[in-house]
Each structure stands twice: as structure tokens, then as C-alpha cells.
Amino acid sequence: MVNLLIADDHFYVAEGIEGALGEYKGINIVGRVYQLEELEEAMLKCEPDVVLLDIKLSGASTGIDFIRAKRKKYPEIAFVVFSEYDSANIIKQAYDVGAASFLSKNTTPDLLSEAIKQSAEKAFFMAPDIAEVLASCYVGNDKSSIDIADPKASLSEREFGVFLYTAKGYTQSDVSGFLSIAVRTVAKDIQNCKEKLGLKRTAQFTMLAMRRQLLPESEYSRE
Predict the structure, then answer these.
(1) How far, in Å, are 36, 131, 139, 188, 204 from residue 156 at the CA level?
(2) CB 193 within 8 A of CB 163
(3) What is the mean pLDDT of the chain?
(4) 115 and 159 assigned to the same domain
């Protein structure tokens, strides 16, 4: 029997997952959480074998940040990412930080059930559609980070704000004032943005924001 903890900030999504998986033998749902800050406490209380979590949960960090920070602390727990964001950059980040599997929210209940059971056995699992996304971007297509990075999915809420203001050409001091955070925090967030998005220069923030249509032309052509 696999004990499963669900972490998703949408009540009806979490309820739907629980309802769908309730039809499958071998999976016991031990709890749900709706905020990232609640997840570690729930893990200690519920003792799950697998945590099924979204990338975007209410809180300052992302699901990928949580796995990066906690995977070594809880080696007995497998983390399965279940998200509407399924760009190659996000998928690669999830596997790089130690996710046992990554599944799109379009995944069928059969495949979701199989991924959870395989992950509980510490087996590597990759759904066919996820493998196809990675293959199309990393085998022969030579896609750059500008092509595949997804700021909304990759960054925490604060990091995304820092990313956008920086993309608009504001200085670290400006961003510090806008977001009411220390300049050193802005600098750290900019570095985090570069690492998470696979970028080398802050100038690429503007290019990426334009590519993702996050900036109207009037905002990135500041004098």
C-alpha cells in the first residue's frame, strides 16, 4: 500500500485527484495540503511514501524549490510533480532537483496511478508525453534557454516580481524600493532567476520577457 500526500492549492483539483485515485487499489491518500508552508508539517504527521505536488503553491517558494531543499532530509519520500506547466525547462528542473516523476495535469488517472506506485518503489518513471517534450527540445533542436524558459512556472512570486522589474530596465535599488526588500535580497533573487531560467546575463531577462509576451513594448523601450 502506497501512502500518498497531495499538495495543491486548488481545492477542487486536490479533491478531483483524490476522487480519481480512490478507484485504484494500492493507494491510500493520507492527507491534503493547500499551501507550501504546510507541507513539511503534514509530511511529518502523515508519513507518506509519495508526495504529489504542484509547482505553483501558495507561498514564497515553488514546489521545485521545496524538493531541492527537502529531498535529502526525507530520502524515504518520493516527490512526484503534477503540474499544468510542462515546458522542457520546468521538467528538467524538476528531475534535476530529485523529483521521482513529472506529470502534466492532462495525465490520465491510469498513468498517474502507475507513476505514484513506481515512484514509491524508487523506480525512475517518465510519462511518454513528458519524454517527448524533453526529446523535442534537447535532442537535435538546439533550443536555448530563451526559447524554453518559463518564468511564471520556474520562479517564486517575489522572484518573478524581481525578474519583471529587472526586465523593464530598473536598477537593483529601484526594485528594492518597489518590492520593499533589501538590495542584497534583490541581488540574490536575480542570481536565483538566472540559475532557475538557465540565463547568464540580466540583459536576457528582457529578451525572455519579450519572448513570453510579459512586457508591452512601451515598457521595455524605456528611455
Answers:
(1) 11, 26, 29, 13, 19
(2) yes
(3) 86
(4) no
Range of the domain at 214: 145-220
**Last residue in a domain, options 93, 115, 137:** 137
Number of folded domains that form the chain:
2
Which element (helix H / strand E) includes 11? helix 11-21
- Convert the pLDDT of each residue in 88-116 to its tens digit: 888 888 888 889 999 998 899 999 999 99
Q: Which DSSP helix (H) or strand (E) runs through 164?
A: helix 157-167
Task: Please report, for the domain that includes residue 97, its CATH number.
Answer: 3.40.50.2300
φ, ψ dihedrals at 43, nearest 5°: -60, -40
pLDDT, one tens digit per residue, over 122-136 is: 876 778 888 777 766
Asked whether residue 190 falls in the same domain as residue 124, the answer is no
Examine the domain organization and report whether 158 and 99 are in the same domain: no
Secondary structure (DSSP) of 114-135: HHHHHHHTT-----HHHHHHHH
- Read off the pLDDT of residues 166-190 as tens digits, 9 standing for 90 and up: 888 788 888 999 999 999 999 999 9
Output phi, psi for 26, to 5 deg: 95, 0
- Asked if the model's pLDDT at residue 47 lies above 90, the reply is yes
